Each structure stands twice: as structure tokens, then as C-alpha cells.
Amino acid sequence: HPYRGEGFALPVVEAMACGLPAIVTDAGPALDYASDETAYLIPARPGEFVECRVGDLETIGRPWLFEPDPDALVGHLRRVAGDLGAARLIGAAASGRIREHFTWARTAEAVEARLQALARMAPRAGSAGGRTMA
Q1: Rounded to whole angstroms, how far apart are CA atoms 33 and 39?
Q2: CA-based end-to-end distance of the chain
Q3: Confidence band for 125, pLDDT divided at 50, 70 and 90
Q4: Which one, of 43, 76, 48, lies nearest residue 62 by Cα?
Q5: In whole angstroms, what is the distance from residue 32 CA to residue 35 CA?
Q6: CB–CB of 52/23 below 8 Å?
Q7: CB 3.0 to 4.6 Å from 4: which of 18, 61, 65, 93, for a disulfide?
Q8: 9-41, pLDDT tens digit by residue?
Q9: Regarding predicted confidence, which is higher, 125 or 38?
Q10: What is the pTM of this model?
Q11: By its UniProt entry, which SUPFAM superfamilies does this protein fall under (predicted)?
């Protein structure tokens, strides 16, 4: 999954949970759950759009992305095809990591903890101050 831009890449997490050896960009969201021990990481260089827009949509600031190295991608594909035993080991390590740390139960716990922390925060100046706005 050599992405240039990605939010979380849930299909990568699902594949890793199933024990498949993932080949992913070495930047962005995959680094939250993938490492050299659990995936094949493709080096990437950061890049920026020339304008403050993506297609017809204006943006605040210039959008950025990652350019995965195509030669490194080819190298990883060959590595996986050439050494299925090593690929299975990486897939097994990935499955263990995802199944331990990235379950829906863990996600719900993290969301609940964050919402509770936000609920404890004092209202900011200029906000409704806890009052319902009409």
C-alpha cells in the first residue's frame, strides 16, 4: 500500500491482523502501527502542492504528501516473493502487534478517555461557557 496521502489506512491494519506482510510508505499514519519488524517500509520524501488547493477545494496552507520511492517498492516486492519464510515471519509479528494493540475495544477505550479529558477541560474564552447557544 504505497500511499502518498492517507488518513489511517485501515485496510493495511486489517491485512496485518490477518498475518499478511504489508508493504507501506515509511511516513504518515502507518508508522503508528508498522515498523521494520512488522512491515516492509518504503522510504518516501515529503512534497508540497504548489497552490493552497486540492482540486477545486481551497485549503489553509499548502497541502503536503509523501512520494514513495518506486525502486524501493520493487525491491520489497522482490524480497517478499523471494523469501516467503521471512515474509511469513513479518506477517506473524504484524498480526500479533495489531491483535494486541489495535482492537476495536482498545479504540473505544482511547476515544472514551479522550472524551472524558475534553469534558474536564475549562471552556475557552468566547465559547458558550457551558450554556446552550440559541
Answers
A1: 9
A2: 47
A3: confident
A4: 48
A5: 8
A6: no
A7: 65
A8: 999 999 999 999 999 999 999 999 999 999 999
A9: 38
A10: 0.81
A11: UDP-Glycosyltransferase/glycogen phosphorylase
Helix, strand, coil percent values for the chain (each to nearest 5): 45, 15, 40
C-alpha torsion angle, residues 98, 103, 107, 112 (rounded to 10): -140
On whether the CB atoms of residues 102 and 13 are closer than 8 A, the answer is yes
Domains identified in the chain and CATH numbers:
10-120 (3.40.50.2000)
Cβ burial of 108 (10 Å; 0-12, 13-18, 19+) is: exposed
Give the closest residue to 25 by CA, choosing from 17, 90, 48, 12: 12
Position 23, amino acid: I
Radius of gyration of the chain (CA): 20
- DSSP 3-state of 96: helix
How far apart, in whole angstroms, are the C-alpha atoms of residue 74 and residue 96?
A: 26
Positive or negative CA dihedral for 18, 23, 26, 27? negative
**What would the grid cell of residue 15 be?**
491485512
* Residue found under cell 489506512: 9
